[in-house]
Structure of Dihydrofolate reductase:
Amino acid sequence: MSKVVMYASVSVDGFIAAENDDPGPLFEWLVSGEVALDGGGVLKVSQASYDYVRPYWDEIAVTIAGRHVFDITDGWDGTPPAGVDHVVVVSHRPPPEGWDPEAPYHFVDGIAAAVAKARELAGGRTVEVAAGDVGSQFLAAGHVDEVRMDVVPVVFGSGKRFFGSVHAQHLLEDPDVVIQGNRVLHLRYRVRH
């Protein structure tokens, strides 16, 4: 069965964006190195970041995102980010008018439907769920197997929280990955079930 990973770049104080959805310097680490992370050479990271991130990105088959993320990214223009095969959008609304029905995007109502559709599409590969409110719903429902954070040395003070609106304690194992890159610290925790 597919592993479900909650993932995002995050400030030291736990935010994935400001209140206005501006990620600020959270993605600067993706252009602060010498090693091309993507085929176009736009993203360049340290060798340590490449060795950690590239294999992870290659194992992701499906990304689950909320409708808010879909809307603010304009659905990544119909092309899933980071070479992912499919995007599952958790939304109570249908796709936007004029949306290409052939795009590999699947609109579902609720997290149970999202995890079922994502696992079906993933074929045993990794399912990634965006951190924030949607990610917190998956964590609260017990669907998250692993938490990955790219911790960036910035303090936001307020904004959109990595763990969204989680209202209960969730235990994680000790980090089994701690890697320092340029302007980033990569962390991976398994979730205790």
The first helix runs from residue 47 to 59.
